[in-house]
Amino acid sequence: MLFYIFLAFSSYVVYTVIHRIVSLRRNIALAKSWGLPYVVLPFNEIGVARSALIGIFLIPFLKLFPFTHSWKWPKFMDPFCHWTFLRSHIGSHSDFYATVSPNSFHFESINAEVNTQIVNRRTEFQKPIEIYTIVNIYGRNALTSDGPDWKRQRKIIAPGFTEKNNARVWELGLKQGQSMLGYWASKEGNSIEEMKIRNTALDTATLALHIICGAGFGIPQVWPHEDESILGDKKMVGLNTKLPAEGHKLTFKEALVYSTGLQIAWFSVFPEWFLKRSPFKIHQKLIAARDDCLFYFKELIEQKRNYRRLGFEQDATDLISPLVKASDDAERAKAEGNGTSQDEGLTEEEITGNTFIIMFAGHETTANVLHFSFLYLAINLASQKHLQADIDEKVGDRPPSSWSYQVDMRNLFNSMVGGVLHETIRLIPPVPHIPKISRGPVKQVNVDGRTITIPGNDSFIHLENVTLNRSRRYYPYSPSKVTDCSDDLDDFVPERWLQKNTSSGSEAPSEKQVDGLEVASFEVHGSLFRPVKGAYMAFSEGPRSCPGRRFAEVEVIAVLSLIFKQYTVELDVRPWASDEELEKMSQQQKRDVYGKAQKRALELIRGSRMTFTVKMEGDPVPVRFVRQGKERFGDLAL
Ligand code: HEM
User: Fold this and answer.
1) Residue 175 resides in a domain
2) Residues annotated as binding site?
3) 73 and 157 part of one domain
4) Complex ipTM value
5) Three-class SS string for 304-325?
């Protein structure tokens, strides 16, 4: 008996080995015949949990053995390789290449022409919705759907992203920026003149959450130092109060924070029935947060429904009302016998699913841009000075309460403020790569006047933003002033966006945008550098591009303008010199101290990890916001 078990087992092993060798040889032969540069990998996994296993265990394990450091394949196995190596791993590879293994054939693009064709041929290059199931916890939504299902949902969510909504984001951005300053000033040891902040990431996360709650959901939120009475008749128990609704453990904000964090990855590891019965606290809290969040979403949706019934629909500028309207209209049409498949609305589950995805997609992304902008500006004092001069020029002495969306937003967007926004996103794109899947047969795309073949048969495609954004082919550059690199594409140089467009720049937005969204007033007659189509993919392009792009841009411009009109951010150098010691230092000594803080801050930024977005984990970079004119390192900005 044992002999037969052994025979069966060894036959299986031999079959598997031979099968894998044959498959690998076939994939290599295909890559060669299609003229694709390629890298051979022993295996190549897709999916949050499997990628995390490779990224967290296998790659660090291999790094323990110095002889593996010269191996090429572990670099390409790293699911975060573009963030880890930026562009050094590409070496002699072209700006598109394949990774082949016995079980997979993936295609990676860092080429603008390829990107544009892929995002615009939506039916051939689809969204790999199977890897997004983790964000289906409140129901299917636009991000996790494809085909007619996606088209229907996108048609319903798009009308919310209007100029009216952008203007609301502007107003809230200015207000919330001021509240964040007030919160910083209220902390022990701080004053409105000088604020020491250990980790600005926590506060930009709160700020972004408040803006999406306010402009996206119509629920104003208060900061810890503010009194709930300022909410007036907008106070809603649990939704924006400091105590949860009766019978619930968490407030809406607490439940949102918990159920939009990395911990939702548990849902992709274990089935829900297991998490519900799990004895671990983390699982119990996750389920409680999910259930409380769902309760608040439903309450919010009911509120929007009542609002419509009372006839206040015209006043709604939020992103949820259009979802409720579409579903109510479809119900009514069906009841009256006029319903066709075209005016189908959303199911209740799709409404909660889309409500969640708007929150999820629009929260951490924007918060990270603000956080990294603060850090890069603290590291680059000369650029910060330039930014402040531009803000002064655009708004003069007028108080922020008089800044208008129609005029000031456009002027500030087309200045160094827009430069800082774009440069931060260029260096750290919140969505580091955009996955697609090539369904059906192989496909042809054109590159530099020739045709290349992209594998079909459900091959994965990645449009790699981190490396693309550092391409000499698409971005203006000069020799680096901070390293010995012959270009400054790894450095923060927001001024590069102020350069005049070359003839290869993308066209200015027209009235008919391919993403089907209203053109924002600040985009028209823009004067910033515009990369060629397919070269700036931070928000993706084409029909599936980010509907929240203008929302995020308005938010970042409002907050940066408000803060840097009044304050300067400097690195907190206290780990290297006390305030008393600084006062006695020569300019050169101060420069040396600041140099140490800059080096450390850059190391910590580079140490950021890719989770859902690129985010700093571990030690934060402490900074100080000081009133303009009270800088400790003002001389270094010259
Ligand atoms: C800096 C901030 C942001 C960045 C960089 C960003 C980036 C992106 C990208 C790259 C996609 C396409 C993902 C893919 O195809 O795999 C996307 C989709 C999406 N984003 Fe954003 N986003 C940002 C902010 C926002 C905001 C503020 C909202 C909402 C208020 C939002 C809502 C969405 C939604 C609903 C989708 C799914 C669209 C669809 O599949 O049709 N995003 N975003």
Assistant:
1) yes
2) 546
3) no
4) 0.99
5) HHHHHHCCCHHHCCCCCHHHHH
Same domain? 125 vs 247 = no
> Which residue CA neighbors atom 6 of ligand 1 most closely?
539
C-alpha span between 44 and 128 (Å, rounded): 16
Model confidence over 326-384: pLDDT tens digits? 888 888 887 877 666 556 789 999 999 999 999 988 888 999 999 999 999 999 999 99
Q: Pairing mode, if any, of strands 609-610 and 194-197?
A: unpaired
Pocket flag, ligand 1, residue 362 (CB < 6 Å)? yes
Question: Where does a domain end: 317, 337, 360?
Answer: 360
Q: Are residues 66 and 180 in the same domain?
A: no
Q: How many C-alpha atoms does 459 have within 13 Å on its Cβ side?
A: 24
543 found inside a domain: no
The pTM of the full predicted model, rounded to 2 decimals, is: 0.92
- 228 assigned to some structural domain: yes
Using the CB atoms, write b or e for 213-252: b if 16+ within 10 Å.
bbbbbbbbbbbeeeeeeebeeeebebbbbeebbeebebbb
Instruction: Note down the domain range covering 285.
Output: 151-360
Smallest CA-to-CA distance from 426 within 86, 168, 143, 137 is with 86
Domain final residue pick, 468, 495, 519: 468
Tell me, yes or no, whether 177 lies in a domain.
yes
- Is the same domain home to 115 and 214? no
Which atom of ligand 1 lies at the shortest distance from residue 544's CA?
Answer: 41
Tally of domains in the chain:
2
Q: How far is the CA of 459 from the centre of ligand 1 (A)?
A: 23
Cβ atoms 442, 453 nearer than 8 A: yes
CA distance 23 to 44: 13
Distance CA 12, CA 17 (A): 9
Contact 264, 134 (CB under 8 A): yes
From 109, 168, 546, 560, give the residue whose CB has the most ligand 1 atoms within 8 Å, as the site to mutate. 546
Secondary structure (3-state) at 477: coil
